[in-house]
Amino acid sequence: MWSREPFAAEVAQKLGNAKSEGGLVVAAAVYAELLAYPNLGESSIRDFIENTGIAVDFDLPQSVWIVAGQRFARYAHRRRRSAREGPRRLLVDFIIGAHALSQADRLMTLDPRPYKQDFPELKLI
Questions:
Q1: pLDDT tens sequence across 66-75
Q2: Which domains are delineated in the chain?
C-alpha cells in the first residue's frame, strides 16, 4: 500500500512488533485521515486495516472527548500566550492522543513532537 514511501518498511516493522505484543486499534479519526491519503480508495484502506488486524474504534467514550478538549484548551492557551509561534494544531490530534491514553498503552506516530508536549505520559513508538 505505501511500499514506495520512505518510511514504509520502518512502519511495517513497528506495526508487526506491536501486533506481536497485543492488539492494534485506531480511533475513527485516524481511519478518516487515512481516507484522505493520495491515490488510495476506501477499499484499499479497508483492505489494509483488515490485513494488518487493526481494529477501528468508531465509538469513542465521553472521557476521550473530555480529555481531548482539556488538552486542546491548554494548547490553545499556550498558543495565544506565545504570539502564535509554531505550527497550528488540529483538534483531531488531541482526539487521537486522548484515545490512545484511554484505549491503548502506546501511540505510533510519524510526528512525536506534539504528542510529547501535550501527552507526556503517553508511550510513543
A1: 999 999 999 9
A2: 12-118 (3.40.50)
